[in-house]
Amino acid sequence: MLNPDQLDRAVELLRGGGVIALPTETVYGLAANAEDELAVRRVFAIKGRPATHPLIVHLAGAEHLEAWAREVPAEARRLAEAFWPGPLTLVLRRTTRATDAVTGGQDTVALRVPGHPVALEVLRRLGGGLAAPSANRFGKVSPTTAEHVRQDLGSDVDLVLDGGPSTVGVESTIVDLSTGAPAILRPGGLATEDVERVLGREVPVRTSSTVRVSGSLASHYAPRAGVVLAEPAEAAERVRELRARGLNVGVLGPAHLVLPPEVARFDVPQDAGDAARVLYARLREADAQGHDVLVACLPQAQGLGLAVRDRLARAAAPRDPTPSH
Ligand code: TXA
Ligand code: MG
User: Fold this and answer.
1) What pLDDT was estimated at residue 322?
2) Hey, whose CA ends up nearest to atom 17 of ligand 1?
3) Is the CB of 172 under 6 A from ligand 1?
4) Which CATH number is 4-199 given?
5) Residue 55 Cβ contacting ligand 1 at under 6 Å
6) Which regions in the chain score pLDDT beneath 70?
7) Is the link from the previous residue into 85 a cis peptide, with omega within 30 of 0?
8) Which residue is closest in CA terms to ligand 1's atom 10?
């Protein structure tokens, strides 16, 4: 845990319109006081994110929901009770406290109570909401350590709080409860099955909605190297084909893969929860080795496997020739 001086400093900076990076259990966030429009604009500028892409407002507890959401349906309360603090974001109809700067002018606001003790302590001391996207440049791999943040954003942020590696490792699951029919806008650190169990009904995944979810752009979470997806059983064959074309190939996958000894493997375990925890760090490590292409093994499409497959698919998607960051 951090020393109290750093927490004081963080809160002082946030009160004064500063922008800080802070740990959450999913990924590190780039945080500003959600009610300070200038500070929120700086978050967009540092990320290089289009101003129309809304931010998640982080709260100290579910008791703050009414200040930000003008309608809190019973299903939202049930999910909040079951999973907050934790890797769940609820999209609800906003109050005027959620400004256009945060919501991108939409009539809804995304709200989350994070599970990391450092984030929670900062929120408790601040008393208000923190607008915080992942602390990476737009379109790039999200950070799961303070070191990742420093590498990406350097001196652009006023302070980086170090709370150790994120334990979940992928972003929160976003559930839209702003209409009658709940839907998952982004699979993430909370399994869809858990959401469905608490709501007692099926909740469709609707990643291509009219709402601007930047994690839902086809190409996102992208390393420099190309990424090729493979079911574990086909990975060795993909590696052989790519190497036959003269490419320098790295592999993201579990230990039991049988690969030529000279091929570098970056350990992404078979278990989806373990894979989620290390995925972004392994993508960064592999990318730093300068491989032309990374063959990424897909976990099964259940539990957190859905989020891992989603992020890998976006990392593998065709890139805009002029990166947007
Ligand atoms: O785990 C997380 O959610 C992390 C940590 C830092 O909390 N945050 C995060 O933020 O992933 P960001 O900005 O990288 O992704 C937030 C997503 C975006 O895709 C955004 O479009 C969506 O939430 N979002 C925000 N407000 C929304 C709204 N009103 N309706 C639908 N989607 C919304
Ligand atoms: Mg992000």
Assistant:
1) 47
2) 213
3) yes
4) 3.90.870.10
5) yes
6) 1, 208-219, 320-325
7) yes
8) 133
